[in-house]
Amino acid sequence: MDGENDRILILTASFGEGHNQAATAIQQALEHLNPSVEARILDFMQWVHPKLDSFAQYCLYQSCRKAPSLYGYLYKATDRVSASNPMNRRLGRMGRSRLLTYLNQFDPSWVISTFPIPANVVSSMREAGEVSFRTATVITDLHPHSQWIHANTDHYFVASEQVRYILRRRGVPRGRIHVTGIPVRQNFANPVTAQRSTLKAAIGLDPTRQVILVTGGGAGIFPDLEYCLEMLNREFPLLQIVVICGRNKTLQDELDVLVWAADWRNVQVKGFVQNIHEYIAAADLVIGKSGGLTTSESLAMGTPMMIYRPLPGQETYNAKHLVRSGAALLAMNQNELATHLKRLEQEPDLLESMRMQALKSGKGQAANEIAVYLIGEHKQNTTIEQHA
Q1: Does a structural domain hold residue 1?
Q2: 49 and 97: one domain?
Q3: Nearest to residue 182, comparing CAs of 116, 274, 123, 114?
Q4: Contact between 76 and 313 (Cβ < 8 Å)
Q5: Which residues pair with 307 in a beta bridge?
Q6: Do residue 181 and residue 197 come from a single domain?
């Protein structure tokens, strides 16, 4: 960017950590590529209506924990709703006047959305002729739910050719779709080349024993976690098990007590860790959910996954994609989890094959590719305007 307007606004929301992490990854890449860029992140839902945001997050969390089938039903039902539907039209007006005032003050050259609702709002602004900046949506899943797709979005950055295919079938012009992968932070930009034993020792783990990293994403949601840990401790006593609880302090406290009371010496419990990339790189296997960012970060580090009981909806689509790629196995209950782990124990070549497929599928440079495109487009348009 060499014009006067070196500002980019990134709109996100805290419904799962993935949308925020994608926004941060793009911000880091833009500012690293060109320090003159001011890339600002705005948590759209929290900014527009903090009380509604908190309530909606609570409902999402509870539905994921207690009524996953209902969550899956709603996901599929809304996936059939078109952008012109009255519900979507109402969502497109959420916080619109306030956001328009903010945009007029900040005057960005690009507005990027990593969450569907602000993408809808910005598209409605473009439709009404209220703004002239360029827009892009970063789809943070391996399946493009219809709520991501809006007629006045200039560009889509997507995870795979499969996502591109689905967008094309839903009417998005091919030239607007760019297959970059889901953006991950700079710590995940390149696979770690050091020996896994060295990586284990660096974070205080036994370099001679395999490490299983158990994670539920930023919210620390993992079904049957206590029972799974008991099974892992009983059936696989030689494994080192590290549980990442994310921002779920209640879960962390409960597990700390459980591990102490049960004397599970091969289990470590962690909360939110800043060096999660080091834990993923050191792990021989990640067991967890199949959220877009969790899986992208694991693949970027070349670490295979065991996906456990994915939520109906986007997690199920993500899981199918990962299993087909050969980088993951899917366990729908504790028995399947134990069976898969015993198989990996007996067939080390299978785990190595999964690791190779993870490296092949990983797209650690996605954020950089997006940043290069945004900055390149800005330069091109600035040159055209100057010669017009």
Answers
A1: no
A2: yes
A3: 114
A4: yes
A5: 288, 330
A6: no
295 in a structural domain: yes
**Structure letter (DSSP) for residue 186:** G
Q: Which pTM was predicted?
A: 0.87
Give residues with Cβ within 8 angstroms of 347, minimum separation 6: none
- Domain range for 281 is 190-361
Same-domain check for residues 107 and 237 = no
Token reading at 90 = 């109402």
- Do 48 and 150 belong together in one domain? yes
For the chain, the domain total comes to: 2
The residue whose two tokens read 């504790």 is: 334
DSSP summary character for residue 311: P
Q: What is the CATH number of the domain that holds 133?
A: 3.40.50
User: Residue 348 contacts by C-beta under 8 Å, 6 or more apart in sequence?
Assistant: none
CA 116 to chain centre: 14
**Full pLDDT tens readout for the chain, 388 residues:** 444 558 999 999 987 778 999 999 999 999 999 999 999 999 998 898 877 777 676 666 666 666 677 777 777 777 777 766 777 777 777 888 899 999 999 999 999 999 999 999 999 999 889 998 999 999 998 888 889 999 999 999 999 999 999 999 999 999 999 999 999 998 898 877 778 899 999 999 999 999 999 987 655 567 788 888 999 989 999 999 999 988 888 888 999 999 999 989 899 999 888 899 999 999 999 999 888 788 999 999 999 999 999 888 888 989 999 999 999 999 999 999 999 999 999 999 999 999 999 999 999 999 999 999 999 865 555 443 433 4
* 8 Å CB contact between 12 and 41: yes
- Nearest CA to 151 among 169, 182, 180, 173? 173
